[in-house]
Amino acid sequence: MIRRFRQHSAPPKTSPTFRRSPTILLARALFLAWFLATLSLFTAAPARAEAPENGADSRTVIVGGNRAYPPYEFLDADGKPAGYNVDLTRAIADVMGMKVEFRFGAWSTLRNDLTEGKIDILQGISYSEERTRTLDFSPPHTIVHHAIFARRGTRSVSNLEELRGKKVVVFRDGIMHDSLVRLGFGPELLLTDSPAEALRLLASGRCDYAVLASLPGMFLIQQLHLTNVVPVAKNVAAEKYGYAVAKGNHELLTRFSEGLAILQQTGQYQAIYDRWLGPHEQQRFPREKVIKYGSMVLLPLLVILIATAAWSHTLKRRVEERTEELARQVAERNRAYEELRLHQDKLIQADKMATLGVLVAGVAHEVNNPNGLILLNLPILKDVYQDALETLEARYREQGDFLVAGLPYSRMRDEVPQMLADMSDGAARIKRIVEDLKDYARQDSVVRREPFDLNAVAQAAVRLVDTSLRRATTRFEAIYCTPLPQVSGNALRIEQVVVNLLINACQALPSSERGIFLATGYDLEAGEVRLTIRDEGVGIPPESLGRLTDPFFTTKRESGGTGLGLSISAGIVQEHGGSLSFDSPPGQGTTATLTLPLFNEENPR
Q: What's the EC number here (predicted)?
């Protein structure tokens, strides 16, 4: 199992004055366990692992290093090896009595040189299961965190998966190159020989993102003055970083691992770490200073706070008492104001409805007059066309096609009858709508009881609100059960209820893609006829569902609702001996159900 370490976490020191963390202690314990196991292995094979008697090795160890991976390893201005890895290797060579020679070059070349035996050891390489097939690794001497870099203003990403479809640059043969290839990123990756070259390509706009180690990336951004490049995901991977040799070279790897353990115990490792990597870590305020300065500031504040709390406690009680008294007064005034406003709204609405009835009657009369002329003249026009058709056909046979009203006769002879039929249907529809409006606006001072067809009432209501339905939805469906038993009552008043339910359904839809569905049916055993209107709207909160038919209760007060429509509708249905109920499961719209008793000749009621 791979554990996450603090970025660039250094292994602990033995001195109590040095800082320790659970991650470092765990790394140290793992290292010591591995070292003891390796040591026992080589003790069992003395001929292979025995060191020279004087503790020194006359053979020079060739150590490979990346020429452009600061601050871990790089060639300085004089072309000499420098960096954290270089100082660490030199210190290990001193304590182990080894001679080392550094050979720096391109990273991909160094990996090939190691497997071909041209160099003996790599001083800085990230661990992976895939690399263990050809390499043996020492315990990690640090943890390298990797980040995603981008130009300022580029959309941020949070992980490697979000880079799909983007132009990504990565360090050739580095651990992130291997990881991206495993994830399916292949030929589309842009590869460079150094992190510096990758950042330059990113800064110039030749790619969208770069995936690099965090510390070298930030180091090079400052060194190259790439002010338009920033990290957008600061920790997408944490990799163990240490020494590696060709598969089977256990003796050399053991000596380097032993030297690293000695440096950790003597404190030399921490000094090297602090010199190169410490300045780039987030600065922490010492705990002792936090306690010291915190006590100097907090103790006086605590005394002041206690005194203030004692003084304010009494004041708080007095303020609470006065606040409660004012709240009661405000609540009483608000209640009185709300009642006054609701009564005023009721009067305004009643006046508007009366005015609307007069207006509808007048408009209906004005529309009926010209529409009657249309209905009267259309049959005559049809006869005229039929009488002229024989002459037009004769001319067509003798002279060929000719223009009628600017269009070919061969086309018009099929379209004119259809146009006349459409005009006739349209005029009839106008007449039907006007009659529905006149019936709807008619005031009935006496509740009439007579049998009527609920299907006809529903169809008339649909015609009245046709414009609202077309504006609200593209998915209106009506299913009428036939034959449907008759019910008893006032058809106009029930029509008013259905109109109100349809208008409410239209207002509940957030977009025209949502639907409204009307259906009728009956239940002979229960002795009732049923009409349901279901919408796919926003629904009704559970706490409001039981109050829908209360007078002046509305959830649409801001858009002009008065809360009278459903209250009046419920009263009409109750007068007819029926019921009006609502069901609104969360997120599934609302279903309104209207039930009326079947017509009974013996008892019309």
A: 2.7.13.3
Q: Which residues pair with 149 in a beta bridge?
A: 210, 231
Alpha-carbon distance of 542 to 583, in angstroms, equals 10
Q: Please, what sign has the CA dihedral across residues 72, 73, 76, 80? A: positive
Q: Would you place residue 362 in the very low, low, confident or very high pLDDT band (cuts 50, 70, 90)?
A: low
**Residue holding tokens 């994830």?**
183
The residues facing 518 across adjacent strands are 478, 533
- The beta-carbon contacts of 185-193 under 8 Å, at least 24 apart in sequence, are 193/68, 193/106, 193/107, 193/108
Count other C-beta atoms under 10 Å from residue 571's C-beta: 14
Cross-strand pairs, 145: 238
Q: Give the separation between CA 220 and CA 421, rounded to whole angstroms.
A: 82
**C-alpha 401, offset from chain centre:** 63
Predicted confidence band at 300 (pLDDT cuts at 50, 70, 90)? confident
At which residue do the structure tokens 């980040």 appear? 147
DSSP string for 95-161? HHT-EEEEEEE-HHHHHHHHHHTSSSEEEEEE--TTGGGTEEEPPPSEEEEEEEEEETTSPP--SGG
How sure is the predictor about 416, in pLDDT bands with cuts at 50, 70 and 90? confident
Dist. CA 276–CA 50, nearest whole Å: 34
The whole-number average pLDDT for the span 411-438 is: 79
Comparing 48-57, 258-267, 319-328, the range with the smallest average pLDDT is: 48-57
Contact by Cβ (8 Å): 595, 530: yes
Q: Say whether pLDDT at 481 is over 80.
A: yes
Q: Is CATH 3.40.50.300 the classification given to domain 447-597? A: no
Q: What is the pLDDT of residue 44?
A: 38
Q: Where in the chain is the domain with CATH 3.40.190.10?
A: 61-280
Give the pLDDT band of residue 353 (cuts 50, 70, 90): low
pLDDT at 320 over 90: no
The pairing of strands 515-523 and 579-583 is unpaired
What is the distance between the alpha carbons of residues 242 and 251, in angstroms, rounded to a whole number?
A: 16
With cut-offs at 50, 70 and 90, classify the pLDDT of residue 446.
very low
Q: Which fold has domain 61-280?
A: D-Maltodextrin-Binding Protein; domain 2 (3.40.190)
Place of tokens 């419920």: 570
What local confidence, expressed as pLDDT, does residue 365 receive?
Answer: 66
Strand 229-246 and strand 121-126: the pairing is antiparallel
Q: Is 594 helix (H, G, I), strand (E, B) or coil?
A: strand
Q: Per-residue pLDDT tens for 212-255?
A: 999 999 999 999 999 999 999 989 999 999 999 999 999 999 99
Backbone angles phi, psi at 153, to 5 degrees: 95, -15
Give the span between the Cα atoms of 22 and 485, in whole angstroms. Answer: 82
Q: How many CB atoms lie within 10 A of CB 379?
A: 11
The number of C-alpha atoms within 13 Å of 424 and in the hemisphere containing its C-beta is 13
Q: Give the H or E element holding residue 211.
A: strand 209-213
Burial annotation 249-267 (CB, 10 A radius, 16+ → b, else e)? bbebbbbbbbbbbbbbeee
Within the chain, which residue ranges are assigned CATH 3.30.565.10? 447-597
Strands (E), 448-527: 450-452, 475-479, 487-489, 515-523
pTM of the model: 0.43
